Input
Amino acid sequence: MLRLTVDGLRTRYVTRGRAVNAVDGVSLEVAPGETVGLVGESGCGKSTLGKTIMRLLDPAEGSIRLNGRDIADLGSAALFPFRRRMQMVFQDPFGSLNPRQTIGTLLETPLKVHGLGKAAERRRRVQDILARVGLPAEAAGRYPHEFSGGQRQRIGIARALVLEPELIICDEPVSALDLSIQAQILNLLVDLKRDLGLSYLFISHDLSVVRYFTDRVLVMYLGRIVESAGHAELWRTPRHPYTRALLASVPQPDPAQRHERAELRGELTRAEAGGCRFRARCPLAFDRCAVEDPALRVVAPGHALACHLA
Amino acid sequence: MAPLLEVQDLVIGFPQAEIVHGIDFHIDPGETLALVGESGCGKSITALGLIRLLPQGAAIRRGRVLFEGMDLATASPRQMRDIRGKRISLILQEPMTALNPVLTIGRQIAEVLRRHEPISAAAAERRVVELLDLVGIVEPQRRYHDFPHNFSGGMRQRVMIAMAVACNPRLVIADEPTTALDVTIQAQVLDLLDGLRRQLGMAVLLITHDLGVVAQWADRVTVMYAGRIAEQAPVGAFFAAPRHPYARGLLGASVGHEEEAHYTTRRLAEIPGSVASAAGLPGCPFETRCPEAIPACGIRPPALEPVAAGHRVACVVEAARTGANHAAAHG
Output
C-alpha cells in the first residue's frame, strides 16, 4: 500500500538568469488504488510536476512523501529503494525505448540494477510481464523498431511494471496513439490496476480520456492546481472559470450537440506578479483578482477550488 | 449544383508501394468535407496529391482531379503554381515549420498576394494588415513586422489562415490544422476558419483524426482506411448510424462517445489488431480486424456502394444487408 502526499511543491527552471516556477506550490495526494487525473494545457507544468514527483527533476521547495517518508531531498543512494515503488510511463513510445537494446534486455535491466533474482528467474519474470501486457514471448528477442506504436507503448508499460511498483505516473500514455489503439491501451491499464492493485497519477491534456479513466481530477493552470474534484462531480458542476472553459472546448462527437463554444480569450501566458494567474483570460475577473492570489480551498466535500468567486 | 472539386479513381504511389488505391469523392462549393482516418491511411497524401505537392518519389499514377474545368492530375507545373495559394490553398499541421523563420509575418503574407495579383507593395501591406485583423491578431499594424518566433502556436495558425485566405480561394485544404494546439485554442482556430468559410464562400477540406472535430465543424465525412474510402456520409447520418464496421469500431473505441462512460462500469470497445494485419491480402483491407467478416470479404476489395441518399459504404456485408432491406421493403 503506497500513499503519495505532495505538499507545497515548487520546481524552478532558470533560463537566461530568469527563474520561472513551472510548478508553483502544488499539494496533492494519491491514495492506494486510486487513479488521479492531472489535466491542463501545454506549458501548465503538469509534466514537470510528474517528473519532479519521480525525482527526475529536483524540487526547489516542498515535500514528496511516500507513506509519510519525505523523498524530496534524498540523494540517489537513499532514493534507490523508493524508485522501485513508483515508476513512469512516457508519452512517446518511439523516443523512450533504447533502439539498440532488445526488449528482453530492456526489461531485464531494471531487475539487474535492483539486484533482483538470478539470470533464469529474471528471464522468467520478463516472460511473465510480456504475457501480462499482451505481447508474445518471442518479443524478448526483438528490437523496438520491429513494433508498432501501440505495441511499443505495451513495452513501455511492461518496463514500468517489471519492478512491481505500487504507483505509476503516466505522462500522456495514449496521446501519440491512434484511436483504435488508444482503447486497447486504456483497457490494458484498467486490467493492470484491477489485477495488481496499482494506483495511477494520469497526466493528460485529453479531457475525454481523463473523464473515462480517473477517479479524481486535478486541473492545473500555470503551475498551480486551480480545481480538484471527483470525476463525476467535476463534469457535473465544474466551478472554476478555467475548468468550465476547458470542458466546453472539448468537441463532442455528436453533431446534434453543436453549440456556441465558450470563448476563452487569449492563450496561456505568464501573468505579471500578484493576483490570480488566470485573470487575463477570465470572463469573470474583477478588481480583487488583480491584487489577491486565490488560495485552493475546500468548497464542498471532496471539491477544492482556487477562485474568489466561489 | 456542380461539385467544386471531383476526384475520380485517384491512385497515388511511391515506386515500391501504392498508397492510395483508386478513390472517388467530391467537394461541393462552400461545404466542409472532413477526411478522417488513422495514421498511414493515406489522407494526407491524398490532400497533397490534389494540389500536386507530393513528397519526393510519390506520384499520381491514375485518375482525375477535376477543378474549375481543369484536370489537376495532368495540369502543367505553371498552371499548378497559378492555382496554389490563389484558387486552392493549404494549411498544415505545424505552423512553426510551415512559416519561414527569417521573414516577417507581414512579408510572407504579402508575398502570396503579390504572386497572384497585380498589386503595389504599399497596397499589399494595407491588405495584409486587414487580413491580420480579420483573423483576430491584435495590433495588426505592429505585428506585421514580427517574426514567426514572436507568435504562439495558436497565433501562428491564425497567420497561416490569413495567408490561406489572402487571395479569396475557392477551396482551403486544412491538414490536421489544430492537432498541435491546445483544446481551448483548437476551438478558437476552427471557429475562425468556419466563420471565414461562410463569410468568403469557400469550401474546406478538413483532414483530421478527431471525430469530435468532424461532428462539430464538418458537413460531410469521408472515412479512409488503408488507402481506400470505407464510408462517405453527411455527418448527421454518420454519427447517428455509421454503416462500415470500421467506422462503427472507431466510434465505439472513442472515449468521448458516451459521456457517462467510466472505467469502473464500462470497458471500451477495441478494434483488435492493427492496420498492418491485412497487408498483402487480396480482399477487404479491414477483413482481418472485422467482427462481421464473411468468406466473400477475402476475394477482392469491396466497391463503394450507395446505401442511402449521399451515403456510400465499401462493405460486402453492409451492401447485402441494404439490398435485403430494400428487397423486403419493395418486394
